[in-house]
């Protein structure tokens, strides 16, 4: 018998919501770290924002589909 690791459906949903709210909380006020290169910091912020937002969205979708099923 193979072990199939699964995440709790409610934990998955809550983690997704927390990640999306965290992205919004970090992006709206801006992050004051001007000592880095402006272009490099902008690219990093954008990539990190998209990655965290997509992970949060995926976790929400998976949580909702597990609740339905």
Q: Terminal Cα separation, in Å?
A: 23 Å
Question: What summary fits the major beta sheet?
Answer: none
**Helicity range:** over 70%
Give the topology string: H per helix, E per strand. HH
Any descriptors?
69 residues; mainly alpha; 2 helices; 0% strand
Give a quick precis of the structure:
With 69 residues, this protein is an all-alpha fold. The chain has a domain at 12-23 and 37-68.
Description of the molecule:
With 69 residues, the protein is mainly alpha-helical. It has a domain at 12-23 and 37-68. 72% of the residues lie in helices and 0% in strands. It is built from 2 helices and no strands. Helix 1 packs antiparallel against helix 2 (38-68). The two termini are 23 Å apart.
Sequence-ordered SSE layout with sheet pairings:
Elements: H1 9-27, H2 38-68
Helix pairs in contact: 1-2
């Amino acid at each position: 018998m193979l072990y199939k690791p699964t995440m709790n459906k409610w934990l998955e949903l809550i983690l997704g919501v927390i990640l999306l709210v965290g992205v919004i909380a970090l992006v709206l006020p801006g992050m004051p770290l001007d000592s880095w290169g402006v272009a490099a910091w902008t690219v990093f912020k954008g990539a990190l924002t998209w990655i965290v937002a997509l992970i949060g969205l995926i976790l929400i979708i998976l949580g909702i589909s597990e609740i339905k099923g």
